[in-house]
Design brief:
Strand order of the largest sheet: 3-2-1-4
Shape: globular
Distance between the termini: 37 Å
Radius of gyration: 22 Å
Strand content: 5-15%
Number of helices: 3
Length: about 230
């Protein structure tokens, strides 16, 4: 009989470990991804660019640097999953099993574009350094002058006392087709966009703009931008 250790990630912040078909599972335990954005970028380049063009003019030095990091990343991911007693106990039983055993990973059927959980108020990881607003920033260099709108993105816009509270005027390529009064609601609303209907090439999207038309002012909360299967 083959014993199966199943790791399921219901979302980016939790993991469920189950050992065999009779195990009810560990429940949703906290999970913090130890892989940084730069690590993910390097891994993407290694798999998609270096791997696909290895017969052309590959950067073997960069590829070796990244491949040397793979064991470190793997160990960090292992430790991130198996730090709780519940998961350690299941892994030990799995490892000690005399029967054959297999690993199985289950992940959500979507790709998270941005879950907005990794931003801090530290230089280099502030949200407005990625989501450019009308104010811009000077550090880290070379900075950004802003996008010319009245929008403000960042930790200091959540309070009406902020000097950057007013103004959210942008243009978007896809208009929300729900009830316009939804924007004044206090509950999260899922907005599903059929990318095939947007009318732009989908093979190399590098920017995404979110904004409100009509010259209104206030605060809009955005969370969990995901890319799902059709």
């Amino acid at each position: 009989m083959t014993l199966e250790l199943n790791l399921r990630f219901p979302d980016a912040k939790h993991v469920i470990v189950r050992l065999g078909p009779d195990d009810d599972g560990s429940g949703g335990l906290p999970f913090t991804n130890p892989i940084t954005e730069k690590d993910l970028h390097d891994l993407q380049w290694y798999v998609e660019t270096y791997g696909a063009h290895s017969l052309g003019d590959p950067d073997d030095g960069e590829a070796k640097r990244i491949s040397d990091q793979l064991p470190t990343w793997g160990k960090a991911l292992f430790n991130a999953v198996f730090t709780e007693r519940e998961t350690q106990r299941r892994f030990n039983s799995f490892q000690d099993a005399e029967t054959g055993y297999i690993w199985k990973f289950t992940v959500p059927d979507y790709l998270t574009v941005d879950d907005f959980e990794s931003y801090t108020n530290e230089l280099g990881s502030r949200v407005f350094e990625k989501w450019i607003d009308g104010i811009g920033f000077t550090q880290p260099e070379p900075g950004n002058e802003g996008n010319g709108t009245g929008a403000a993105v960042g930790h200091d816009v959540w309070s009406p006392d902020s000097p950057h509270f007013e103004g959210t005027i942008m243009e978007t390529a896809n208009v929300y087709d729900g009830d316009p009064t939804d924007i004044a609601g206090t509950k999260w609303i899922a907005w599903e966009i059929d990318l095939a209907s947007v009318g732009v090439g989908l093979t190399n999207i590098t920017t995404l703009t979110i904004g409100i038309e009509g010259g209104e002012t206030g605060v809009v909360y955005v969370d969990a931008i995901r890319l799902t299967k059709p």
